[in-house]
Amino acid sequence: METQHSGCRMLLFTGDGKGKSTAAFGMMSRALGHGMRARVIQFVKSDSAVGEQKFFSKLPEVSWEQFGRGFLPRDRKSPVMEEHREAAAEGLRAAIEALGNPQYDFVLLDEVCFALANELMPVEPLLDALRSCGSGKIVVMTGRNAPQELLEIADTASELKMLKHGYQQGIPAEKGVEN
Question: Which residues fall in a coiled-coil region (predicted)?
Protein backbone atom coordinates (compact mmCIF):
# COMPACT_ATOMS: atom_id res chain seq x y z
CA MET A 1 0.00 0.00 0.00
CA GLU A 2 1.39 3.42 -0.96
CA THR A 3 1.38 6.13 1.62
CA GLN A 4 1.56 9.79 0.81
CA HIS A 5 4.69 11.42 2.15
CA SER A 6 4.15 14.34 4.49
CA GLY A 7 6.72 16.61 6.03
CA CYS A 8 10.25 17.11 4.82
CA ARG A 9 12.25 14.58 2.81
CA MET A 10 15.08 13.11 4.88
CA LEU A 11 18.13 11.41 3.43
CA LEU A 12 21.03 10.00 5.38
CA PHE A 13 24.54 8.97 4.32
CA THR A 14 26.49 6.96 6.90
CA GLY A 15 29.16 4.26 7.10
CA ASP A 16 32.95 4.06 7.28
CA GLY A 17 33.46 4.69 3.57
CA LYS A 18 34.61 7.88 1.89
CA GLY A 19 32.03 9.97 0.09
CA LYS A 20 29.23 10.72 2.57
CA SER A 21 29.66 14.49 2.49
CA THR A 22 30.57 14.38 -1.19
CA ALA A 23 27.24 12.69 -1.96
CA ALA A 24 25.40 15.27 0.14
CA PHE A 25 27.08 18.17 -1.66
CA GLY A 26 26.20 16.56 -4.97
CA MET A 27 22.56 16.54 -3.90
CA MET A 28 22.88 20.17 -2.86
CA SER A 29 24.21 21.00 -6.34
CA ARG A 30 21.13 19.36 -7.80
CA ALA A 31 18.84 21.37 -5.51
CA LEU A 32 20.62 24.63 -6.34
CA GLY A 33 20.21 23.83 -10.02
CA HIS A 34 16.46 23.81 -9.41
CA GLY A 35 16.56 27.27 -7.83
CA MET A 36 16.41 26.12 -4.21
CA ARG A 37 18.04 27.94 -1.31
CA ALA A 38 20.35 25.89 0.90
CA ARG A 39 21.80 26.03 4.37
CA VAL A 40 24.82 23.97 5.37
CA ILE A 41 25.47 23.29 9.03
CA GLN A 42 28.67 21.39 9.69
CA PHE A 43 29.25 19.62 12.96
CA VAL A 44 32.76 18.72 14.21
CA LYS A 45 34.53 20.12 11.11
CA SER A 46 36.44 23.38 11.53
CA ASP A 47 38.51 23.76 8.35
CA SER A 48 37.21 26.61 6.18
CA ALA A 49 39.78 25.95 3.44
CA VAL A 50 38.10 22.82 2.03
CA GLY A 51 37.03 23.00 -1.59
CA GLU A 52 33.30 22.57 -1.08
CA GLN A 53 33.12 25.46 1.37
CA LYS A 54 35.31 27.68 -0.79
CA PHE A 55 32.98 27.01 -3.73
CA PHE A 56 29.49 26.91 -2.22
CA SER A 57 29.91 29.76 0.27
CA LYS A 58 30.41 32.14 -2.68
CA LEU A 59 26.87 31.47 -3.87
CA PRO A 60 24.17 33.83 -2.59
CA GLU A 61 21.71 30.89 -2.39
CA VAL A 62 23.87 29.11 0.20
CA SER A 63 24.25 29.92 3.87
CA TRP A 64 27.19 28.07 5.46
CA GLU A 65 28.13 27.65 9.11
CA GLN A 66 30.66 25.45 10.88
CA PHE A 67 30.12 24.37 14.46
CA GLY A 68 33.16 22.28 15.13
CA ARG A 69 36.51 22.30 16.82
CA GLY A 70 38.13 19.72 14.56
CA PHE A 71 39.24 16.23 15.47
CA LEU A 72 37.98 14.81 18.76
CA PRO A 73 40.56 13.74 21.32
CA ARG A 74 41.05 9.99 21.68
CA ASP A 75 40.37 10.35 25.41
CA ARG A 76 36.64 11.15 25.45
CA LYS A 77 37.00 12.21 29.11
CA SER A 78 39.45 14.96 28.15
CA PRO A 79 38.48 18.47 29.32
CA VAL A 80 38.70 19.53 25.65
CA MET A 81 35.52 17.53 24.99
CA GLU A 82 33.51 20.29 26.66
CA GLU A 83 34.51 22.69 23.87
CA HIS A 84 33.31 20.13 21.33
CA ARG A 85 30.00 19.70 23.19
CA GLU A 86 29.48 23.48 23.31
CA ALA A 87 30.15 23.79 19.58
CA ALA A 88 27.75 20.92 18.83
CA ALA A 89 25.06 22.53 21.00
CA GLU A 90 25.39 25.73 18.96
CA GLY A 91 25.15 23.67 15.78
CA LEU A 92 22.06 21.89 17.09
CA ARG A 93 20.38 25.25 17.77
CA ALA A 94 21.25 26.38 14.24
CA ALA A 95 19.93 23.10 12.78
CA ILE A 96 16.62 23.41 14.62
CA GLU A 97 16.27 27.00 13.40
CA ALA A 98 17.10 26.03 9.79
CA LEU A 99 14.65 23.13 9.80
CA GLY A 100 11.86 25.46 10.87
CA ASN A 101 12.83 28.32 8.57
CA PRO A 102 10.84 28.44 5.30
CA GLN A 103 13.67 30.47 3.71
CA TYR A 104 15.63 27.23 3.18
CA ASP A 105 14.48 24.49 0.82
CA PHE A 106 17.53 22.28 1.40
CA VAL A 107 19.30 21.77 4.75
CA LEU A 108 22.53 19.79 4.94
CA LEU A 109 23.53 18.62 8.42
CA ASP A 110 27.08 17.50 7.69
CA GLU A 111 28.64 15.15 10.27
CA VAL A 112 25.54 15.33 12.48
CA CYS A 113 25.59 11.53 12.86
CA PHE A 114 29.20 11.59 14.04
CA ALA A 115 28.37 14.32 16.59
CA LEU A 116 25.42 12.31 17.89
CA ALA A 117 27.35 9.02 17.97
CA ASN A 118 30.06 10.69 20.05
CA GLU A 119 27.47 12.10 22.47
CA LEU A 120 28.31 15.71 21.73
CA MET A 121 24.60 16.53 21.81
CA PRO A 122 21.26 14.80 22.45
CA VAL A 123 19.28 13.29 19.58
CA GLU A 124 15.74 14.04 20.79
CA PRO A 125 15.65 17.82 20.03
CA LEU A 126 16.85 17.09 16.49
CA LEU A 127 14.23 14.35 16.04
CA ASP A 128 11.50 16.75 17.19
CA ALA A 129 12.66 19.38 14.66
CA LEU A 130 12.85 16.79 11.87
CA ARG A 131 9.35 15.52 12.64
CA SER A 132 7.93 19.03 12.43
CA CYS A 133 9.83 20.46 9.45
CA GLY A 134 7.63 21.49 6.59
CA SER A 135 6.63 19.72 3.45
CA GLY A 136 8.86 20.45 0.49
CA LYS A 137 12.03 20.85 2.53
CA ILE A 138 14.89 18.44 1.82
CA VAL A 139 17.16 17.46 4.72
CA VAL A 140 20.37 15.56 4.14
CA MET A 141 22.36 14.20 7.09
CA THR A 142 25.85 12.70 7.02
CA GLY A 143 28.36 11.05 9.32
CA ARG A 144 29.60 7.75 10.61
CA ASN A 145 27.64 5.63 13.07
CA ALA A 146 24.18 7.07 12.44
CA PRO A 147 21.96 6.56 15.47
CA GLN A 148 19.12 4.10 14.98
CA GLU A 149 16.59 6.88 15.63
CA LEU A 150 17.82 8.81 12.57
CA LEU A 151 17.86 5.68 10.41
CA GLU A 152 14.24 5.03 11.34
CA ILE A 153 13.03 8.56 10.57
CA ALA A 154 14.96 8.95 7.29
CA ASP A 155 13.14 8.30 4.02
CA THR A 156 16.34 7.11 2.36
CA ALA A 157 19.49 5.88 4.10
CA SER A 158 22.69 4.73 2.43
CA GLU A 159 25.69 3.12 4.05
CA LEU A 160 29.03 3.71 2.39
CA LYS A 161 31.47 0.89 3.07
CA MET A 162 35.21 1.37 2.77
CA LEU A 163 36.83 -1.26 0.61
CA LYS A 164 40.18 0.51 0.53
CA HIS A 165 41.45 4.05 1.02
CA GLY A 166 44.51 5.80 -0.34
CA TYR A 167 45.44 6.96 3.16
CA GLN A 168 46.03 3.31 4.12
CA GLN A 169 48.56 3.13 1.27
CA GLY A 170 50.42 6.22 2.44
CA ILE A 171 48.77 8.67 0.02
CA PRO A 172 48.32 11.99 1.85
CA ALA A 173 45.14 14.08 1.73
CA GLU A 174 44.95 15.96 -1.54
CA LYS A 175 43.08 19.08 -2.68
CA GLY A 176 40.11 18.08 -4.79
CA VAL A 177 39.98 14.58 -3.27
CA GLU A 178 39.88 14.81 0.52
CA ASN A 179 39.67 18.55 1.02
Answer: none
How far is 122 from 104, CA to CA, in rounded Å? 24
Angle at 99 between CA 28 and CA 85, to 5 degrees: 95
Q: Is 142 helix (H, G, I), strand (E, B) or coil?
A: strand
List, in order of start, the domains of the chain with CATH numbers: 9-158 (3.40.50.300)
pLDDT level of residue 4 (50, 70, 90 thresholds): very low
**What are 79-104's pLDDT values in tens digits?**
889 999 999 999 999 999 999 999 99
Q: Is the pTM of this model over 0.85?
A: yes
